[in-house]
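To: structure desk
From: M.T.
Subject: fold request, one chain
Message: Could you run this one when you get a chance? Sequence is below, nothing fancy, just the single chain.
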Amino acid sequence: MTGAPVVERSQGAALTLVGIDRRFGRAVALDGLSFAVPQGSICALVGENGAGKTTTLGILAGFLTPDSGSVDVLGLGPYHVATHRGRVGILPQDAELPTESTPAELLYAWARLQGLDPGAARRSASTCLDSVLLGDRAHQRVATLSHGMRRRLTVASALVGDPELILLDEPTSGLDPAQARHLRDVLATRRGRATVVISSHNLPELESLCDHVVILEKGRCLRADRMDAVTGRDRELCVHLAPPFPPGREAIVHLRLPPDDPRELPEATSELLRDLLGEGARIVEVRRGGALEERYFSADR
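Reply: Done. Structure tokens follow.
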């Protein structure tokens, strides 16, 4: 990124973006975008169509160059093939595959491009195919694979070589529920040993998998925080009661710990439930925080 100011890597961050601007003609894709992603986290990149998610991933992956601003990827500055080779795995949006090749051939080629020697490349290709349940299709032409199989193969391509950073744009698009669940389990195994950034419109799926979230709107970052903080799972509780309700109580009892409250949520939960049971309340459900989807559409997100 010629002429861009050097960005100092945020402590403990795998990715840091500061003041990123990107236009396509007159259209503004990113407008002073700034955020950081903690190292070892699985991060959700959330926003409506046109919010800048795919453009952001393209800049992180080196496919696009910012008009201004600074990017740091894994503490090595902006993405550069010579510097980041073997350290970054990428699944672009609407990735296409050569239909005459086989999964084994493709993953072997990508592993070699990541810098693995022939033996290691074959082993990595085989491991990644097995992880996405395509080991039995390793030597069939891509043209014979279903849409879901091809999608799983593209995800495997981002995992080959065991990269430190994995960038995924809509990885479960077109997968059936069982396949999507298995893929989430595969990605969850990367937590702590790699940083994974996932762009998706499936907010319940992101909530179940991710521990960090970045919310984009019109090319800006509205919020970047822990998933528990965004959903309120670390400081909020909702208790549903069945009638008849104790005096002064209603069907739903809310608890929100203020920032200066020294108690942890489990301690406060125990105290509240003890009080409710002592009042004769009949507890139907206890829920921590709210859903990511609910918080995404709320005014105070």
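Reply (cont.): Residues 105 and 161 are 14 Å apart (CA to CA). Let me know if you need anything else for the meeting.
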